[in-house]
Specification:
Layout lengths: L2 H18 L1 E2 L5 E4 L6 E4 L5 E4 L5 E5 L10 E4 L5 E6 L2 E6 L5 H7 L2 E5 L7 E5 L5 E6 L2 E6 L6 H6 L2 E4 L6 E2 L4 E4 L6 E4 L5 E4 L7 E5 L8 E6 L5 E6 L2 E6 L4 H6 L2 E5 L7 E5 L5 E6 L2 E6 L4 H6 L2 E4 L6 E10 L6 E4 L5 E4 L6 E5 L8 E6 L5 E6 L2 E6 L6 H4 L2 E5 L7 E5 L5 E6 L2 E6 L4 H6 L2 E4 L1
Antiparallel strand pairs: 1-5, 2-13, 3-4, 5-6, 7-8, 9-10, 11-12, 14-18, 15-26, 16-17, 18-19, 19-22, 20-21, 22-23, 24-25, 27-30, 27-38, 28-29, 30-31, 31-34, 32-33, 34-35, 36-37
Length: 450
C-alpha cells in the first residue's frame, strides 16, 4: 500500500473509531468463571495473568479496528496500554509505534455474551477466528477451541464484567511543598534529577492509589509534566523514570504515604520495599534515608500538599493549518519526518509551559503518538519520543507568537535559536532564520483548528 493510501486508510479508521467509540465510564474487572476470586491483571513480573490483585479495564466499544460489535481493553492503571495477543500470548502493550494495523487487529475482540454460561462472556480474537482469550496455569492466551470442547476450556474462556468499587484512582495534580523550605517544592534540576526547587523547576504529581505494586494503602507519584514517569528510588537516590513492566520498578516506585507521622499537617513517604526509609531532601537533592529521629530529618522528610498552584495545561488536540497552503496541515510521513500534508490524522496538544518550563513557551505533543514531541534537529523538524536530556527539551520548546506576521495566524519561534521560525519549504517542515520576505512570512504562519 502506498504512503498516501496507508494514511487515507488510517484516517478513515480513526474517523470511524472517533465517531463510534464509547469508552465505558465505569472501569470493569474481568472475573474468571472457574476461579471466581481471580480477575485478568498483571503478576509481579508484569505478565498478563489471572490474579487476585484488583485490575481494572475500560471496555472500548467498538474496538481499535472500529468494527461494530467488537471491543478493546484499555488499562485504567496504565492509560494507553491495551490487551493484545503476540505469539498467541496476551500482553498489555502501549499503542505508540510499529505496525499500527497489526496492533489494532491484535487488540480487538468479539465479545460472545452467554456463549457458554449465562452472565459470562467469551472473547474471540478479531484476526484469529475461533481463538478465544482463556487462561492456562494462570497465564492468559488466545487459544483455539479444543476438539472435543471440554467444560474446563469453557470455564477458562468465560469472564464476568464486574463493576468493582475498588478502583485505581489518580488525584488532581498536586504540588508537594517542603516543610523547612516553604518557598520550595519537589521538582527537578536542569538534568531532571528530583530535588526541592522553585519555579519554573517545581513539579506537580498525581497520587496514584494503590501504588504500582497493587498493594492497598500504597501510592505512586506520577509526573504531570511527563505522564507515565514516576518517582522511584535507585541506589537510595530518587529518580524520575519512565514506567517499566518490572517487579523491581513496581516496588521502587511505591510508597506508604504517612499523614502527620513526622510533622503535623504534612505527609511523608516511606519506602514500600525498604521500611523505615523515607524520601527526604539533603543538599536539595531527594534521597531515601533511614529515619534517624532528628528534628532536621523530620523537616526534610515532610511535605505539604497543595493542589491550587498553576497547572501545566494540555490544550487541544488541534490541526495546524498553513497560511499559504490552506488545506494542508503539519503532519508526519511514515518515517516520522514532519511535512505539510493533506491528511487529517495528525493532531497536536499544545503543552503550556513548554518542556523547558519557561513561562510563555509551548511544546507540541502528538495526539496520535503519546509521549512524542515536535522538535528540531539539524534545522529539520522531527517527531521524536521524549528524552530526559537538556538538548531535547529546548529543541522541542517554542515561543508561540500570535498575530506575528498576519492577523489570526501564529508563528513558532525557537527558544534556543533566536529569530529562527518553524516554516515549510517544498512541504518539508524546517527551522529557518527569518529573511524578511513575504514568502517566509507565509510559510511560517499557521492557525489552529479542532
Amino acid at each position: 500500500m502506498s504512503r498516501i493510501g496507508w494514511k487515507a486508510w488510517v484516517t478513515f479508521t480513526m474517523l470511524i473509531t472517533t465517531a463510534m467509540s464509547d469508552k465505558t465510564d465505569r472501569p470493569r474487572r474481568l472475573m474468571s468463571h472457574n476461579l471466581p476470586s481471580f480477575n485478568i491483571g498483571l503478576n509481579a513480573d508484569g505478565l498478563v495473568t489471572i490474579t487476585t490483585t484488583p485490575e481494572l479495564f475500560r471496555i472500548v466499544s467498538p474496538g481499535l479496528m472500529g468494527i461494530r460489535s467488537t471491543v478493546s481493553f484499555e488499562s485504567v492503571r496504565y492509560p494507553g496500554r491495551y490487551l493484545r495477543h503476540r505469539g498467541w500470548v496476551l500482553h498489555l502493550d502501549t499503542f505508540t509505534e510499529g505496525n499500527h494495523l497489526l496492533f489494532r487487529k491484535d487488540a480487538t475482540f468479539y465479545p460472545r455474551h452467554g456463549k457458554y454460561f449465562d452472565g459470562y462472556t467469551a472473547y474471540e480474537s478479531y484476526n484469529a477466528p475461533n481463538r478465544f482469550i482463556h487462561h492456562q496455569d494462570l497465564r492468559l492466551r488466545v487459544s483455539p477451541l479444543p476438539n472435543p470442547l471440554t467444560d474446563v476450556f469453557k470455564k477458562e474462556a468465560s469472564f464476568m464484567e464486574s463493576e468493582d468499587t475498588l478502583a485505581i484512582t489518580k488525584t488532581a495534580p498536586t504540588e508537594f511543598i517542603s516543610a523547612n523550605f516553604p518557598l520550595m517544592s519537589i521538582g527537578f534540576t536542569t538534568s531532571n534529577l528530583p530535588q526541592i526547587a522553585t519555579s519554573p523547576w517545581l513539579e506537580r504529581f498525581r497520587v496514584v492509589s494503590p501504588g504500582l505494586n497493587g498493594q492497598c494503602g500504597t501510592v505512586s507519584l506520577e509526573s504531570e509534566r511527563y505522564p507515565g514517569h514516576y518517582l522511584r528510588h535507585r541506589g537510595f537516590l530518587i529518580h524520575l523514570d519512565a514506567f517499566q513492566e518490572k517487579n523491581i520498578f513496581f516496588h521502587d516506585a511505591s510508597f506508604w504515604m504517612r499523614e502527620g507521622i513526622l510533622t503535623q499537617g504534612y505527609v511523608s513517604f516511606e519506602s514500600y520495599n525498604f521500611p523505615n526509609r523515607y524520601i527526604r531532601h539533603q543538599g536539595y537533592r531527594l534521597k531515601l534515608h533511614v529515619y534517624d529521629g532528628s528534628s532536621l530529618f523530620k523537616a526534610d522528610a515532610s511535605f505539604m500538599r497543595n493542589s491550587d498552584s498553576i497547572t501545566i495545561r494540555r490544550e487541544g488536540p488541534y490541526h495546524l493549518f498553513s497560511k499559504n497552503a490552506a488545506h494542508k496541515t503539519i503532519g508526519l510521513d511514515n518515517a516520522g519526518l514532519s511535512y505539510l500534508l493533506d491528511s487529517r490524522e495528525d493532531k497536536f496538544h499544545i503543552v503550556r509551559p513548554g518542556l523547558t518550563g519557561e513561562p510563555g513557551t509551548i511544546s507540541l505533543a502528538s495526539a496520535l503518538y503519546p509521549g512524542h514531541y515536535l522538535r528540531h534537529r539539524n534545522l529539520l523538524m522531527h517527531l521524536d519520543p521524549f528524552e530526559e536530556t537538556s538538548l531535547y527539551k529546548p529543541d522541542a520548546t517554542f515561543y508561540l507568537r500570535p498575530n506575528h506576521f498576519f492577523q489570526g495566524y501564529f508563528t513558532l519561534e525557537s527558544t534556543n535559536t533566536k529569530n529562527y521560525f518553524v516554516r515549510h519549504q517544498y512541504h518539508r517542515m524546517k527551522l529557518h532564520r527569518y529573511d524578511g520576505t513575504e514568502l517566509f512570512r507565509l510559510d511560517s504562519s499557521y492557525k489552529l483548528e479542532i
